[in-house]
Amino acid sequence: MEQGEAAPPAAEEKGGEEEDDFGYRLFPDRNKKPQSFLVRSLFTFHNRCQLMLRMTLDTNPYAQLLLEAMKQSGCTVFNDRHFSCEDCDGCVSGGFDSATSQIVLCQNNIRHQSHMNRVVTHELIHAFDHCRAHVDWFKNVKHLACSEIRAANLSGDCTLMNEISRFKFGLKGHHQTCVRDRAIRSILAVRKVSKETAEKAVDEVFDACFNDLEPFGRIPHSKTDAKRAYKDFQNRDRYNANL
C-alpha cells in the first residue's frame, strides 16, 4: 500500500456484511451519484488526475506492459471505463474495485507524476490478477495477501530510492522485508482483521506469490528494468505468434 494503495472489493458485498465494510470507508465517492463532466471539469484535482493518468498510460513502461498483458488475457483496459479519479480518505492513494473492474485513483492524495505511476501500476497488478485468476477478494484473505505481495514486489513500491525516501535502509533481504510489510499494511487498511491474521496470511503465501513474476518475468527494480521487461514481453508475443 502506497500510504496507500488499497483494494476495495465488490460493492454488492458491502450492504450484507455488518462487521466489515471491506475498505469502502476509504473511498466515499464510490457511493455518490456520478457528477456531470461539466461539474467535474471545474475541479483542479480531477483535471490534474486525468492528465497524470494519461501521461502514465502513454509513457510508463510498467503500466504499458500490464495494459498489453491484460489485453492478451482478454481484459482490455479502457481509460474512460476502467479508471476513476475520486476523492478518498486521507490515508489511501488508490484501489481496485472488483465489482466494477475499476481502478480508483485518489485525486486528492496523488500529487506527483511518479506517485501516479506507482499507484496505477500497483492497481493494474490487482486488475491483472483479477483477470487471470479466480480471486476471492472478500472471503479469502490469502488471495488478497497474494495479490498485495505481487503488487508491492512488481510495481516499484519497494525500489531503493522509494525506501530511502521513507528513511528505511537495509541490505540483505531488504526488498523482501519491504514487500512483506507493505502487503500487511494493505490488508489491514481494507479488512477488519488482526495484525496477526494479516501477517499469517502473508507469510503462508509469501514464497509462491513473491516468485510469481507474471507478466514481467523479472522484478523490475527500476524504469530501465521495466522497459527491458516490456520489450521482452513484446518479443515473446511475436515469437509465440510465429509458432
TrEMBL record:
Stated name of the protein: Mitochondrial inner membrane protease ATP23
A single cellular component GO annotation: mitochondrion
Species assigned in the record: Dromas ardeola
Family assignment from sequence similarity: Belongs to the peptidase M76 family.
Keyword Hydrolase: yes
Stored InterPro entries: Peptidase_M76_ATP23
Molecular function as annotated in GO: metal ion binding; metalloendopeptidase activity
Compositional bias annotation for Low complexity: 1-10
Keywords of the record: Hydrolase, Metal-binding, Metalloprotease, Protease
Pfam families per the UniProt record, alphabetical: Peptidase_M76
GO biological processes: mitochondrial protein processing; mitochondrial proton-transporting ATP synthase complex assembly
EC number(s) from the headed UniProt entry: 3.4.24.-
Region feature Disordered, mapped onto this chain: 1-25
